[in-house]
Amino acid sequence: MTIIELIERKRDGGGLTGEEIRWIITEYTAGSIPDYQMSALLMAIFLRGFNERELAVWTEAMMHSGDVLDFSHLPTAKVDKHSTGGVGDKVSIPLAPIVAACGLVVPMMSGRGLGHTGGTLDKLESIPGFRARLDPDEFGQILERHGMVLAGQSETLVPADRLIYALRDATGTVPSIPLISSSIMSKKLAEDLDGLVLDVKVGKGAFMKHEAGARKLAETMVGIGAAHRTRVVAILTDMSQPLGTTVGNALEIHESLDVLAGNGPPDTTEIVYKLGAEMLLLGNLAQTEREARHMMRDAVDSGAAMERFSAVIEAQGGDPAALIDRSLLPAARDTRELRAPRAGFITRCDALDIGTAAVRLGAGRATKEDDVDPGVGIIVHHKVGAEVEGGEPLATVHYNDEQTLENALGLLQDAWEVAPTPPPPPSLLIGEVR
Ligand code: URA
Fold first, then answer.
1. pTM for the model
2. Does the CB atom of residue 183 touch ligand 1 within 6 A?
3. Fewer CB within 10 Å, N- or C-terminus of the chain?
4. What domains can you pick out in the chain, each with its CATH number?
5. Does ligand 1 lie within 6 Å of residue 180's CB atom?
6. Which residues, 6 or more positions from 263, have their beta carbon under 8 angstroms from its beta carbon?
7. Substitution site in 180, 196, 224 for ligand 1 pocket (most atoms within 8 Å of beta carbon)
8. CB of 184 shorter than 6 A to ligand 1
C-alpha cells in the first residue's frame, strides 16, 4: 500500500481499514512517512472525520506506539481524571490526594500549559524542588507506596501522539473531535486504568466554546473507553469564567492547599468533590455520590488528604515545609489592583482574556522553549453575579515587570463587565455523559 493512495481515499470520503491505520501509525512513528504526507492525511481526517471503527483502531494503534503501563499487580482500582484544559483549573492538585486518601490508586499524568490555559505540572513545579519528570520505575514505586503520583508523560508512552500533536499544532488540525479524542484517550488507556473521569470544559476559556461540541467530544471519548472496556464518565463544566480565585502557578498552589485544608473557594471545591465522587464510584469504593462525598470530606477534615499530598510532594523532591510555611512558595515582587469602573453587578468575567493576561505576565509560555514565571498571576476577587461598588478591586495582578503588567492590563480592563441588573445565575455543572 502507498500512503498517497490512503491520503487520496480519505480525502475523497472513503474509509481506512484496520491494517492500513496500524501501518500508518507504525510507519509514521518510525520516521518512514514524512511529515508533509502525514500533514495531508491529518487534514483529510480533519475534513472527513472517522467512523466509529476507524476511530477505535486509530486510538488503539496510537496507544500501542510505545510502552503500555501495567499496574495489574496493584490490588485497588486505578482511576485517573483528565481535564480538556481551562483557566484557573487546578483541580487535579487537591483532587488526587483526596481520593488517594479514600483508598483509590491514582496514576495521574498531567501536562503543561497550552496557549492561554495553565498546566498542572507548571503549577506543581512552583513548589521548591518538585520533580515532575520521573522514569517509569520511580513512577511505579511512588504510586505503589503512596497510592498516587503526579507526573508528566514519559518519553516512551504514546510517542505517536507527541509527533502527531506537534504536526497538528503547525497545520491547523488541532480542533478536530476524532483527533482530540484519540490523542487524549490513547494516552489515558496506556496508563492501564480501570476508570477515567473526564472534565470537559465548555465556554470562552475552553477548547470547546459551545455545549454541543463539548457534548460530542465527551460522547466520543466515552465511546472509545467503552470500546476498550474502560469505564469513562465525562462531566461538562463551565469555563466561561476562571475556576476559583487564582490564575498563575504558585497562586494556584495556595488555592489547592486551601481546598485540601477545607477552606477553598466554593466552585473549585465543588468541581473537586463532583469529579472525586465520580472517581470513587468508578473504583467501586463508594456506592452513592453522597457516600463518596462523605468519604472525601472525612479525608479533608482528618488531615489525611493534606498528609498524602505532603508525602507525595516530598517523594518527588519537593519541600513539604513550603506547604505549611507558604512564604517559601515563589511570589511576584509587586501587585496592582484592577478596580470596578462603576457600581453594579458583574455580568462577564472573561476566562480567555484573564488566561491570556496571565500568559502575558509570564505565567504561561509564548513558545515551547520559554520558562514560566512561577510567582506571577491574577487573584480574581469578583465573578459573574457578584454586586460591587464603584472603585472596588475586581482583581489583584501579581507581576515582576512593568512592561508585562501593561500588556496584561490592556486585556484585563475589558475582561469584566459591570451592569445595573444582575445576570441569571451561571451554572458550574453543565451536563454529563456516561
Ligand atoms: N489534549 C490532548 O492531549 N490532545 C489534544 O488533541 C487536545 C488536548
1. 0.93
2. yes
3. N
4. 3-49 (1.20.970.10), 79-323 (3.40.1030.10), 331-419 (3.90.1170.30)
5. yes
6. none
7. 180
8. yes
